[in-house]
Amino acid sequence: MRAKNRLSSSFVKTAPVGKHCDGAGLWLVKREDGGAQWVLRVTVHGRRREMGLGGFPSLGLADARKLAERWRNVVAAGRDPVKEREAEERAARREDISLAMLTADAFESRKAELKGDGTAGRWLSPLTLHVLPKLGKVPVTDLDQRDIRDTLAPIWHTKADTARKALNRISIVIRHAAALGLDVDLQATEKAKALLGKSRHVPKNIPAMAWADVPAFYASLEEPTLTHLALRLLILTGVRSTPLRKIQLDQIEGDVWTVPAESMKGRKGATLDFRVPLADEARRVIDLARPHERNGFLFPNARGGVISDMTLSRHMERRGLKARPHGFRTSLRTWLAEATDAPHEVAEAMLAHLVDSGVVRAYRRTDFLEQRRSLAERWADHVTGGAGNVVALRR
């Protein structure tokens, strides 16, 4: 029997379902749906490789043999035909290795790591706003530190945090391109950072209210409006604004509110939900908010969503206060440090801060719920004026 060219044109046209060898590693694979595929099997560096050459009848018998011979010659030269073809395809679509395309590809690869699969757009926004309008069409293999410097220089001192995030994202995209086998400069962002110099921007902390002043402010939230009730619950629980504004009734069971893991900021790599102990006063506020519930959300807005973070901030701004809603987390943390003997890890858990390494957390499988429940009641006592006094809401 011949080692090559075993099949005939007539047989190929009427071949039954199955695999049919033409010799020297070339096979015709006939599928049950009637379609057929040419496949070449070769051995490169002791490893079996299988590559599809094309479908029949668009690729006929004669052309399939010519194509198979070409890739056999590549193998004979000691090269991997699959990698060789991939390199040729990348070269043929050079316009597709632009920074914009690689950014989109890197984002798709990282979506699972981002909160809500990155739907909020915060991972991409530093690039889409400040980098891609200028460098989006530049092939990533041509990108160098001068390009990055010139792009970020206008915001390096004025929007330092955004510029830092943009530089970090560019580095991730370049590493992604390198992993795809593209010839990129992995040090480009570090070199750009050296050219840009040290930022003159001085970060400012979010203004916070002194914990001793919180009871007076809490007492002033006397109307059962969404804004007043949301601010009260924000103060009592110490959570961030986003999970508070998006709280749903089915997340509450008894005196525990379970915040979904995807709603928690600053807990990268964490897969567990976060349990928030609810003091008696917090549960009372929730009961007062129940009449406002819509679609399961405790603090809805008129457009079918939830109240915005600016709603809470503007309420405090209109009252002439420098403090902002997020600052109540600082108020609580300072109270824990100055007015209680709570251990450091328990105090940090009150604010859902991750402490210690992932290894330590893997062995210390507790969220200190009972200790935090006691502290939540004590904080509520302080906020309501002491000794568990209930601050009345005006109807």
From TrEMBL:
The keyword DNA-binding applies. This is Site-specific recombinase XerD. GO terms for biological process: DNA integration; DNA recombination. It comes from the Bacteria. Keywords: DNA integration, DNA recombination, DNA-binding. Residues 201-376 form the Tyr recombinase domain. CDD domains: INT_P4_C. Gene3D superfamilies: 1.10.150.130, Integrase, DNA-binding domain (3.30.160.390), Intergrase catalytic core (1.10.443.10). One of its GO terms (molecular function) is DNA binding. Belongs to the 'phage' integrase family.
